Amino acid sequence: MIRRDRLQVFSGKTSRSLALTVCANLGINIGDLDLTLFPDGEINAKINDDVRGSDIYVIQSTCPPVNDTLMELLIMIDCFKRASAERVTAVIPYFGYARQDRKAEGRVPITAKLVANMLVKAGVDRVLTIDLHASQIQGFFDIPVDHLYASPVMIDYFQRMNLKNLVLVSPDVGGIKMVRSYAKKLQAPLAIVDKRRTGPRDTEAVHIIGDVKGKNAIMVDDMVATGGTIAQAARILKAKGAKDIYLCATHPVLAGSAVEKLSKAPIKEAVFTDTIPFNQPDKKKIIKILSVAGLISEAIRRIHNSESVSSLFV
């Protein structure tokens, strides 16, 4: 059950389709909000519903074009606060700028912290997000952050596939914790691709730690941006004797020629979620999109009803 009094869900332009499914799950209509551009490109927002005293959820991934989607989100938050909403929760399925979470070298910004500051300054009361690139970003906020994981959606899909002789593979050492969680639930061993950074944007996969010979391999990652490292890792897995290779990643950033790189790699299927809308041609039809709408709608229901959300953090 859900108390529908004063619960309202709105969306930016990027996450409209996802927001409509979330609203359908909650049994409510999506909020009426106009987003237009001034002649010089500035964003203008106008709420057409009464939101005074309401519990507002704004669904917007800050995905490419990231600066436009981020600015749109900030303006919407300001708009709701000035319209006297009681609480505004930013539902950010994909949190952009998350890769810049520390100073890896001198004279660089910590942009993830900057974005957190901007959201709080805009007036947001709570943040709901999925599979942050770096979990410590939760600590950049001085407001509640609900960090959900797409793993229940992904694991259910692969369990229904009933694949035999599995091995879960981390494309790099940093992803071991995520892959270990998948391996435990799928009751399979894990392996690691040892890669070395050769430049600011380039990495080189060197060898495999673990046994993949004759096994069906599932590579697990939080996002795929350019696809280069994943494609290279898939080729090494195949060279080491892996049977069928699957990719499982939450966020389909897929910048530039990423889709083409994945289609040329020995990957049988690449599974993503709809945290970012996928509107690119996939000639080989290897890309599968799963929805996180059920996960988000359940989290919204629990937050609105002041129920525990912790059971969703698995």
Give the SSE layout.
Blueprint: E1 7-11, H1 16-26, E2 33-37, E3 43-47, E4 55-59, H2 66-82, E5 87-92, H3 111-122, E6 126-130, E7 145-148, H4 151-161, E8 166-170, H5 176-186, E9 190-197, E10 203-209, E11 216-223, H6 228-239, E12 245-251, H7 258-264, E13 269-273, E14 287-290, H8 293-304
Helix pairs in contact: 1-8, 4-5
Word description of this protein:
With 314 residues, the chain is α/β, with parallel strands linked by helices. It has 2 domains: 7-149 and 293-312, 3-Layer(aba) Sandwich (Rossmann fold); 151-290, 3-Layer(aba) Sandwich (Rossmann fold). The protein contains 8 helices and 14 strands. The protein has helices at 16-26, 66-82, 111-122, 151-161, 176-186, 228-239, 258-264, 293-304; strands at residues 7-11, 33-37, 43-47, 55-59, 87-92, 126-130, 145-148, 166-170, 190-197, 203-209, 216-223, 245-251, 269-273, 287-290. The strands form 3 sheets. A 7-stranded mixed sheet has the order 10-9-8-11-12-13-14, with helices on both faces. A 5-stranded parallel sheet has the order 1-4-5-6-7, with helices on both faces. It has a two-stranded antiparallel ribbon with strand order 2-3. A hairpin with a 5-residue loop joins strand 2 and strand 3 (43-47). Helix 1 (16-26) packs across helix 8 (293-304) and helix 4 packs across helix 5 (176-186). The two termini are 23 Å apart. The model has no long low-confidence stretch (mean pLDDT 93).
